[in-house]
Amino acid sequence: MAEEPDRFSQARRSEKGSGVFRLTTRLAPLVTVVVKVAIFNKMDECVERQVVDDPKYKGKKFTDGQVFVCEIGNPGAHLDSEMKEERLKEDLKFYFMNPCEKYRARHQIPWKLGLQILKILMVTTQLVRFGLSNQLVVAFKADTTVAFKHLFLRGYSGTDEDDYSCSVYTQADTYESIFFAINQYCHLKNISLGTLGYGVNEDNKTGIKVCKQHHKRGTMLPSNETLNIDSDVETDCIHLDLQSLSRNPEDWKNASFFRLEFYRLLQVEISFHLKGIDLQTIRTRELPDCYIFQNRIIYDNKAHSGKIRIYFESDANIEECKVLNISGSIQKNTQYVLVFDAFVIVICLASLILCTRSIVLALRLRKRFLNFFLEKYKRRVCDADQWEFVNGWYVLVIISDLMTVIGSILKMEIKAKNLTNYDLCSILLGTSTLFVWVGVIRYLGYFQTYNVLILTMQASLPKVLRFCACAGMIYLGYTFCGWIVLGPYHDKFEDLGTVAECLFSLVNGDDMFATFAQFQQKSVLVWLFSRLYLYSFISLFIYMILSLFIALITDSYDTIKKYQQNGFPETDLQKFLKECSHKEEYQQEPTALLSHFCCLRRKGSDDHLILFD
Q1: Residues 338 and 416: beta-carbon distance below 8 Å
Q2: Least confidently predicted of 37-51, 57-71, 113-127, 309-323
Q3: What is the CB-side half-sphere exposure of residue 338 using CA atoms within 13 A?
Q4: Is pLDDT above 90 for 116?
Q5: 610, exposed or middle or buried, with CB in 10 Å at 0-12, 13-18, 19+?
Q6: Residues 14, 21: contact at Cβ < 8 Å?
């Protein structure tokens, strides 16, 4: 009996291709018991377990020279659990691989990576072409507005005085300026260098409309410091068509409407519509654009300060040209551009589908991991590990693809002259291209050197946001204070928006001397306050707040560098993936589709018994 263990070890043999191995031993006339056991080589542990298969040996343990009968519980369930865990580990490892590792592991072609590279090239090309076309539109609008100012504003110098174009200071100059604009409109076709024509206004009338706003009635005697005026405002308008203007000009100039009472006059507004055609697009083999210019000349006398400010406003709307008969290759070029835009839409839709599919599969994998972790370890996975399955880059790509598709559709309609909304199309295409290029950082993050930037941004972002929230309160306080105190004495503090921009420039060290020097020294108290205000703001934000802001980012960078040298803190997910000690080498055959990452994958077989005779 002393030799039985040796005979036992000699009887053990492994069969290739089987998920288990067969053990057979014969000891005198005892009952043969058949059990299932896993492939793991743990027979010593199994020998020490209690007999559960045969009631005759129930609850007994055996030593050398006796029958070895062992049971590991529910063998089928144990095998399924082990297989389930191994498959989950393999799927998790594969999910967190980069495209190159996935290709080496399973020879899976990185379609999303190739598609993103192609999309970057095509979207950028599309944006550049649209930008060049849009640049012509912007230049045409700007040049036309300058031409209108020279045509309709008397004495315009070519440079706006401030936010208004020019100004008048006498009643005679006011009358001459109003009559000059009306006469120029009447003789437009004879004096204009552009392809301009008359358009209809809101009332479907061709001509010029003059309106004046004034208080209903009132008298004013400044010498006696007497004012008697009705604060209610009334508006009177007159419409002058081309026929009326073509007659004797003295007839409409002497009308009672143009007898202005300046002490109760608020403003005079001259409005008219003009049509134009942008022919420079033909040089770029594109169809020309037709424009409707809604022009307004406003004589502002609300301040009654002796200075009437003259504003010129021109809103250009692109409309579809009703009749276009252009010979040449323009139409063919337009078709090529439309085909290119359609191909961009197809590429973006394919990218959208692949990224959406990846997110859906990731959410399913997360659900499997959460359920398994809860079942095995009896606790929930932390939120940080759960968010690891939500790839923010895919979300960014999906948003970019949606914006590119919508923007490309609008661009195609604009190219075909069915739509004219350049602004919305520019915002969509510009923002989508921004997101596309930002998404390139994801692939640079696969390299440790470039990944430092991404990790530093991720680590410092929460602290930076909290810091900015606190600093923003101080910034807003300085903004409101500067607006209310320094606004009457400095152009850069006239309104809240300008104050915020001025302070932001000071934080970045821009235009400091000019901000100090332009204060009007009319009040000594305000002048002293302005110095205290500016010195305290600059010292606080540049020397303290900005330095602390940089220190937060530097601290996060140093932390990331230490982690890269000494290792990052392990989460539950990372510990789970490290439990598997054995990792099969990647298969090199081009026909292989799967790769093993953790323990050996077992193959099914009918030979799953251990026999003891």
Answers
A1: yes
A2: 37-51
A3: 14
A4: no
A5: buried
A6: yes
CB 353 within 8 A of CB 401: no
Segment 146-169, tens digit of pLDDT? 899 998 888 888 777 777 788 889
**DSSP 8-state code for residue 58:** T
Whether 468 has a pLDDT exceeding 80, the answer reads yes
Distance between CA 186 and CA 184 in Å, rounded?
5
DSSP conformation class of 257: G
> Residue 585's pLDDT is what?
40
Name the token pair of 354.
């692949």
DSSP 8-state code for residue 53: S
Please check whether residue 30 is in contact with residue 51, taking contact to mean a CB–CB distance below 8 angstroms.
no
Kindly report the backbone phi and psi dihedral angles of residue 80, in degrees, each rounded to the nearest multiple of 5, phi listed first.
-65, -40
Summarize pLDDT for 77-95 with one digit per residue, the tens.
555 666 777 777 777 777 7
- Phi first, then psi: give them for residue 545, nearest 5 degrees: -65, -45
Rounded-to-integer distance, Cα 222 and Cα 548, Å: 59
User: What local confidence, expressed as pLDDT, does residue 330 receive?
Assistant: 57
Q: Cβ distance 49 to 59 under 8 Å?
A: no
pTM confidence score: 0.65
CA distances from 142 to 146, 270, 314, 456 (A): 6, 20, 10, 44
Strands 218-221 and 226-229: antiparallel
Number of other CB atoms surrounding residue 520 within 10 Å = 13
Give residue 448's pLDDT band: very low, low, confident or very high (50, 70, 90): low
| pLDDT above 60: residue 566 | yes
Residue 541 burial by Cβ neighbours in a 10 Å radius (0-12, 13-18, 19+): buried
The answer to whether 301 and 167 have CB atoms below 8 angstroms apart is no
Phi, psi of 440 (to 5 degrees): -65, -25
Evaluate whether 62 touches 69 at the Cβ level (below 8 Å): yes
Distances (CA, A) of 331 to 336, 340, 344: 9, 15, 20
Give the residue, 118 or 600, on which the prediction is more confident: 118
236 bridge partner residues: 212
Task: Read off φ and ψ for residue 241, nearest 5 degrees.
Answer: -85, 175
Per this entry, what is the length of the chain? 613
* Distance in angstroms (rounded) separating the CA atoms of residues 324 and 320: 10
Q: Give the span between the Cα atoms of 222 and 201, in whole angstroms.
A: 41
Residue position matching structure tokens 């290739």: 16
What's phi and psi for 378, nearest 5 deg? 60, 35
Residue 166 token pair:
């020019």
Q: pLDDT per residue over 228-250, tens digit each? A: 777 788 888 888 888 877 777 77
The span from the CA of 199 to the CA of 397, in Å, is: 45
- Per-residue pLDDT averaged across 465-477, rounded? 92
